[in-house]
Amino acid sequence: MKKKKIIIIVLVVVLICAAIVGGILFFRAHQKNSLVADVESVSMLNWGYWGDSMESYGTIRNDDSQDIYISMQQTVKEIFVEEGQQVSAGDPLIQYDMTQVELQVEMQRLQVQTIENSIVVAQRELEKLKNTTPVPNTPPAPADPMPAPVEPSVPEKTGEAYNYVSQTAVAYNGDGSSESPLRFLCTQDAYVYGSFLNYLMANGLTASFEVRDGDTVSGAIVTAWTVNGMLLEEREPESKWYIVDGSQVVDDDIYPDEIQPDDIMDIGYTAEELTKAISRKEEEIKELDLQKRMAQLSLQQLENQSADGMVYAKIDGIVTKLGDLNNLPNDGSAFLSVAGSEGMYVQGSISELALDKVSVGQTVTVMSWSSGMSSEATITQINDYPEEDGYGYSGNGNPNASYYSYMAYIEDSSAFTNGEGVSLTIQTAVDESDMETIFIEKAYVRQEGGRSYCLKEDETGHLVKQYVTTGRTLYGSAIEIKSGLTMEDYIAFPYGKAAKEGVRTSRSDDTMVEVY
Question: Following DSSP, what letter does each residue of 221-260 receive, concatenated?
C-alpha cells in the first residue's frame, strides 16, 4: 500500500513538472510568435557613395592669370607677343623647339618603364622574402668561410655598346641632371657595378642605361634603366646589377660547392630581421608606386603639349611679363605672364595623387569665411608645376606629396568681395561601380566570433542571420557591405527583444511577404 502511495506521489510530481515545463515552453513560443520585428529595405538604408571631397582654402581675386615657365632644358623657337599686348583666349604665345620636347617625352617614357621594371623586381624580392624560413638567433658558424667569387673575364664593350658600366665608362650624352641623364649605350646582357651606382649616389647624378636595336646609338630603344642617384642606397662596390630589370647579377659558376647567394640570404635572416626586411621592401614598393604615378603624370603633361609645340593663351587679358631668352629666370618665377581683365576668380590647390580625378571644367564649391555664403566656381586652369609650399592645401593627403594650384572662375560672385578668404571643396568623380556600392549604418551590423552579420528577412517573412563581408568606412558612421546583402533585401535593427532569428517581420513600406 505504501509503495502504491509513493508511486502515485512520484507520478503526480512528474506530471506537475511536465505541466510547468510545457507551460514555460508554450509561453515562450507564444511570446516569440507574438513578437514582430520591423524591417527596412537595404535600398532605403543605403547611404550611397558619391566620391571623396578635397578641402583647401583660397583668396578671391578679381582677375585671372596664366603663367608660363621655361626650364633650362627647353628651347623656345619663337615668341608671338610683346609685354603690354592685349591677347584673347586661343592666341599663340610662344612655340617650343619640338626636338627638345620629343627628347623629353622619350626620356620620360624611359623613366616610367624603368620604375615599372623596378616595381616588378621589388615585388619578386618581396615574394622571396615572404617565402624565406627564418633561422635561430644564433646560427652555427659555417665550417669553412666562403671564398670570394672569381671575377669572370668580360670585355668592357662590344662595338659601341658597353657590356658592363664602371667609372671608366663615358656617356654618349647628358649632363647627369634629372632632365638630362648621363646616357650609356649597353648590350642586352650588360650590367653596372655597385661602385658606379655609389658614385651616382655620392654626386646626386642621374644616369640612363639603354639597350637599342643593333647596339647603336641610332637604333630604336628596346629598354632602359634610369637611375636617380639621390634615391639610391649604398651597394657593395663589386656587386653587379643587370640594366634590363635592375636585379643583382648571380654567377652560378663562380661560387664553389654549389653555394649560391640565395642560400646565403636564407641562412642570414632571423625572424626579427626577416620581418624588418619585409617591411622595408613593402615601403620600397609603395615609394616606387608613388614615383611611377608622378612620372606618368609628368609624361602625360609632356604628351598633352600641342603637336607643334605651341602654347596658347587660356584667357583674355594682357601680357604683363615677358622674360629674356638669354637670361632665363632662376628664382622659380614665370617667364611669361598673362593677367585677365575682369571677373571673380579663386585659387586653390590639389594633391598630385588626385590630379587624375580633377580636370579643367570641374565644379568647386566656394564658401565665404566672413558671411558663410557659398557659390560654385568652374576650374579654368591647373598649373603644370607644383607649388613649393603646398599653398592652400588643408586636406588629409600624403604630406610628402606635391601640390598643384588651380584657378577657378566664379560666375555668381555677388556673395564675395575681392581679397577675402574662402574655403574650397572639390567633389571627386566616382566610377559607376562605386555608385552601386552599399553603405549602411554601423549599428545594423553585429559581430559574432570575428564575423559580421545582419538580421535579414527570409522568404517566409522571418528573421535569419546573414553573414556579410564589410569594407570601407564612410564618414565614421556607415560601413560598406561588399557581399551578403543586395539592394532588394530587408533587414532589421539587430538590438532589442525582437532582434532574434525566427521572429516574424513587418515591412515599413507595408508590403507583405507570403508566409509558408
Answer: EEEEEEEEGGG-----TT-EEETTT-PBP--GGGSGGG--
Q: Which is nearest to 343 in space by CA: 407, 404, 426?
A: 407
Tell the residue number behind the cell numbers 646560427, with chain if given.
Answer: 139
Report field, pTM of the whole predicted structure over 0.90? no
Output the nine-digit C-alpha cell for 162. Answer: 658597353
Q: Where are the beta strands (DSSP E) in 411-500?
A: 421-427, 438-441, 446-448, 451-457, 463-474, 478-483, 490-492
Whether the per-residue pLDDT at 440 is higher than 80: the answer is yes
- Averaged pLDDT for residues 198-225: 86
Question: How many C-beta neighbours within 10 Å does residue 424 have?
Answer: 24
Q: Residues with Cβ < 8 Å from 48, sequence gap 6 or more?
A: 435, 437, 439
Q: How far apart are CA 416 and CA 272, in angstroms?
A: 59
Residues in CB range of 397: below 8 A, 6 or more apart: 54, 351, 353, 354
Q: Which of 108-117, 225-234, 341-350, 353-362 has the lowest mean pLDDT?
A: 341-350
Q: What are phi and psi of 176, to 5 degrees?
A: 95, -5
Q: How far apart are CA 80 and CA 68, in angstroms?
A: 14
Instruction: Return the closest-CA partner of residue 65 out of 339, 335, 312.
Output: 339
Residue 102 scores a pLDDT above 50 = yes
Give the integer Cα–Cα distance in Å for 243 and 163. Answer: 10
Which residue type is seen at 417? T
Cell numbers at 427, concatenated: 567633389
